[in-house]
Design a protein that fits this description.
Strand order of the largest sheet: 3-4-5-10-11-12-13-14
Order of helices and strands: EEEHEHEEEEEHEHHEHEHEHEHH
Distance between the termini: 33 Å
Number of helices: 10
Low-confidence stretches: 353-363
Shape: globular
Radius of gyration: 19 Å
Length: about 375
């Protein structure tokens, strides 16, 4: 059985361990949405992860839905992200950019008055943060068939920006209620064209995005993130396992670098979709979602190839060493998850002692 600390080949990328830093929205790009030196330091500190998946980066102006999140479609985004890729590579790390379009999880106040776009004109439930504070979500407008293809082209363009910025690859954000997830679910996708109806058709958009991004990178430097059981903001799904088995099988035909699934191989009573994905997809599988060292070991024993950690990386920049040596873990300050500046972001020190000595810095 592989260990978390064994090397692994992830497509074209050789990793020194099987610990992935999961994508984490931290809202440090400012109102300009341009990656900056503070972000570069944050990623540099965490470069001992086998692989860093960056926070989600918007692929275009209609992809925005949150404050101070970075973009990946303008020349200034290219230059800004080069700060992070250079810093990580100088620390002997590997980093891929997560490509993100929020779809209906937005508001006209983020979009210069335009309506959010989605596969169908079905709005999410609840409120969202806007420049004017919390507001109820507003109904999106359904993309035309030609517009769907235009969004695919935006993903391709963002992939090229990521390549020009020096990343080692990209991850497509297909999870958590955002636009690809919205196409996959029959509760948010009631289209009657080739992008709606059967599981095959509802998977079409995700696969076209995968193919377009692979035109830039090759499949062996592209991953796709999924969250089958994450029914966010009023999403519903009646054929969950069949849809995700279909998507995984079609991905398997293309041989992407990895699938990254928020799910559990060790809890079959709660999660039937992740085992179905593992069965249908023969390539590297990353699992994520509240894992600790013990659960990570079980996941590897049950067929996962890598394990992604999110929250633990916030306050433990040297998480791989702490997991390997059984060192104490610092608890993150939730109040500073999305606040500007270094507090709760780059001010968590690495462990400065050794096993058996007193204290962890930051603890």
């Amino acid at each position: 059985m592989p260990s978390l600390f064994d090397p692994v080949q992830l497509g074209a990328i050789r990793l020194p361990n099987r610990i992935v830093m999961a994508p984490l929205t931290r809202s440090r790009a400012g109102q300009e949405r341009v990656p900056n030196a503070l972000m570069a330091e944050y990623y540099r500190q965490r470069a001992t992860a086998g692989l860093i998946v960056s926070e989600g980066s918007q692929i275009g102006p209609l992809a925005i839905g949150y404050p101070d999140t970075p973009g990946c479609y303008l020349p200034e985004h290219t230059a800004g992200w080069r700060l992070s890729t250079s810093a990580v590579h100088q620390a002997d790390g590997r980093i891929v950019l997560q490509l993100w379009h929020v779809g209906r999880i937005s508001h006209p106040l983020w979009l210069d008055g335009q309506s959010p776009v989605a596969p169908s004109a079905i709005g999410p439930t609840g409120d969202t943060r806007t420049p004017d504070g919390l507001r109820p979500f507003e109904p999106p407008r359904a993309l035309s068939t030609d517009e769907v293809r235009g969004v695919v082209a935006e993903f391709r363009h963002a992939a090229q920006v990521a390549k020009d910025a020096g990343f080692d690859g990209v991850e497509i954000h297909g999870a958590n209620g955002y636009i690809i997830d919205q196409f996959l679910r029959d509760g948010t996708n009631v289209r009657t064209d080739e992008y709606g109806g059967s599981p095959e058709n509802r998977c079409r958009f995700a696969l076209e995005v995968l193919d377009a991004v692979a035109e830039v990178w090759g499949y062996d430097r592209v991953g796709l993130r999924l969250n089958p059981h994450g029914l966010y903001r009023g999403m519903t799904h009646t054929d969950l396992v069949e849809t995700y088995r279909t998507l995984a099988a079609r991905c398997d035909e293309r041989h992407p670098a990895f699938l990254h699934v928020v799910g559990a191989l060790d809890r079959p009573d709660e999660d039937q979709a992740t085992p179905a994905i593992r069965e249908a997809f023969s390539g590297p599988l990353v699992v994520c979602g509240g894992y600790d060292r013990d659960r990570a070991d079980r996941a590897l024993a049950l067929g996962a190839d890598l394990v992604a950690f999110g929250t633990l990386f916030i306050a433990n920049p040297d998480l791989p060493a702490r997991l390997e040596c059984g060192l104490p873990l610092t608890e993150a300050d939730r109040e500073s998850y999305y606040t500007p500046g270094p507090k709760g972001y780059t001010d968590y020190p690495a462990w400065i002692g050794t096993p058996g000595t007193v204290g962890a810095s930051g603890a």
